[in-house]
Amino acid sequence: MDEGSAGKDFRSRFEALKVSETQRQALIQFQDGFLNKNEEGGRNAADELLARVHQYLKELGLDVSSTDVVVRAYANLRGLGKNCIEKGLMRATADIVLFANGFTRRQPLFDFVDVGHGKERADHKVRESFNFFVTHFQCKHIILGVSHDSGYAPFLEKFASDESVRDRITLLEGYQAHARIRDLGFRKIVKFASVFISAPGSVAQSVCTQSKPSSKGHQVGKGPFTITAVDPGKLGPMLKNKEGKRVDKPLAVDPSLVQAIKKKNLCGWLFLKGHCSGCDRNHVHAPLGNVEQEALWVVARQGSCHTHRKGKFCDDRLCIYGHATWSGSNTEVVL
Hints:
Blueprint lengths: L2 H4 L22 E2 L1 H4 L2 H22 L11 E5 L1 H10 L7 H13 L3 E5 L4 H16 L7 E3 L8 H8 L2 H4 L2 E4 L6 H4 L6 E2 L5 E2 L27 E2 L12 E3 L4 E2 L7 H9 L4 H6 L1 E2 L13 H12 L4 H4 L21 E3 L2
Parallel strand pairs: 2-3, 4-5, 5-6
Antiparallel strand pairs: 1-7, 8-11, 9-10, 9-12
Helix pairs in contact: 3-5, 4-5, 10-12
């Protein structure tokens, strides 16, 4: 491939969104459904990105109600616009400016910055922005979209060796993280598939993991593991009976499916709540459908809640384990 054709493609990064004229494949790129709607698409992309970031931060245990989300996107807008025209997503290069404006104006702390021609300009912005936030005591977490670029390996290596810093960093993955970046040992990797294209022609969900596979091919060990597609809200509401004991809402699941799910030894925390700090169960599986989730919940309930066993009221709304049996009457919603 010559430089001319390579320069027609782009990559975008979040806290690192950028365009590269030296790489052919756009490894972290907005979904076409956003880019082809100009300013409206920019607004929609900002809303969806904020929603996915909020969801992910909740999975990390952060209070999103008191956390501001700052987004810095860096791109050569002219090059990005040309690429969109060639793909039939835009009619004129000015349309990408409308997209960037919509993205920037939608959220007060979102900025889509035009850095002009030259990969080094975006790289400089990314590094300096990262250095600022990683040393800022008020910055709780950083989502960095450079996992596809091996050139960042030397820069990130010093942060990967510092556990107190490493655990505050999540790598945003597009098509595939480069092996040199993965080998650094960052434990958190995530895809926002509803915002960015995660594979050519497809939308995939993600499992965050850096643990090694067991002899059975399952991802086990330290974790943490994360699936951003899981909605833990489905575990509610919390119910109690007239005696004040917590009861489990009924689940009507085919027993054969329950047995099939049980044989897979899936981690209930990961596939029902979306996050597991690390255990010896299986963490490698496509996100479960609603019925499969209920089957896994039935399996999890076969283990009694520790708080309930001690005769105390379990107030964990997202507890996946077994409590008192549903009686069908005199039951009230707690939360």
